[in-house]
Specification:
The protein folds into two domains: 64 residues, Arc Repressor Mutant, subunit A; 162 residues, Alpha-Beta Plaits, CATH 3.30.70. It is globular, with a radius of gyration of 19 Å. A hairpin with a 4-residue loop joins strand 5 and strand 6. A four-stranded antiparallel β-sheet has the order 3-1-2-9. A four-stranded antiparallel β-sheet has the order 5-6-4-7, with helices on one face. The protein has a two-stranded parallel sheet with strand order 8-10. 43% of the residues lie in helices and 24% in strands.
Length: 240
């Protein structure tokens, strides 16, 4: 039986993944600050990006540097927001949100990924109409359903979704109310495990077997691309 990777190799892999996450968040902080100003109190998108950075132990110095580069206090690179839409195998709709300093490189990488795993890149608007932008605060199995539901309603959430199979709970908000609802839930002693503004499909597409594996590989490949910030799909599968 062969030996697994060394401790050093595993540490290097973890460090590399952490670096990739940091890069994506720093780009998001920069674009948010450039678009809406460097004060998170008046820029909900920037505040959400900062919270995401703090959640992965990004230092405040790194965050402040990213904001200063975006607002012109320090020299930095300007990134462009681009959204690509397409289909994975099985008719699964996919949205790929990118931040890039080289549009030609990014579209080539995204198109290659779709082609490699049996999908195809579509035109603007070809699948976006199937998704809604919303805020989601997620609580794991065993969460206090009554307390969360009561606090969420009082905070102005749009919906509370309870998953009977394991007791997990999602509190759903509009993007505009996300920060206020999150603050209220935290103040009530109900900090979510995950809190994000995301895209969710109105209807999921069930896939299985080899098709599900191809879809999973495509989504994972896209997530690993340096210029890709977020990947959304309407795939529903028990095979991954």
């Amino acid at each position: 039986m062969g030996r697994g990777p060394s401790i050093e190799a595993r540490k290097n892999a973890v460090d590399a993944q952490r670096g990739k996450i940091f890069t994506k968040i720093i780009r998001e902080i920069g674009v948010a600050a450039r678009a809406g100003g460097g004060d998170p109190a008046g820029n909900p998108r920037l505040r959400a990006a900062i919270d995401k950075g703090l959640s992965v132990n990004m230092s405040k110095d790194v965050i402040e540097r990213a904001i200063k580069k975006a607002t012109g206090e320090l020299e930095g690179v300007e990134y462009e927001q681009i959204r690509y839409e397409g289909y994975a195998p099985g008719g699964v709709a996919v949205i790929v949100d990118c931040l890039t300093d080289n549009r030609v490189r990014t579209v080539a990488d995204v198109r290659h990924a779709f082609g490699k795993f049996g999908g195809n890149l579509g035109t603007e608007g070809s699948v976006a109409f199937m998704f809604r932008k919303l805020g989601v605060l997620s609580y794991g199995p065993g969460a206090d359903e009554d307390r969360i539901t009561e606090a969420a309603i009082e905070a102005g959430a749009d919906d509370v979704v309870i998953y009977p199979e394991d007791g997990a709970i999602d509190v759903v908000t509009s993007p505009e109310a996300f920060n206020d609802v999150k603050d209220a839930m935290v103040a009530a002693g109900l900090a979510p495990e995950i809190a994000e503004v995301t895209m969710r499909a109105d209807n999921d597409v069930a896939v299985g077997g080899d098709t599900a594996q191809q879809v999973a590989k495509l989504l994972a490949w896209l997530q690993e691309l340096d210029d890709v910030q977020d990947v959304y799909s309407n795939a529903e599968s028990g095979d991954w």
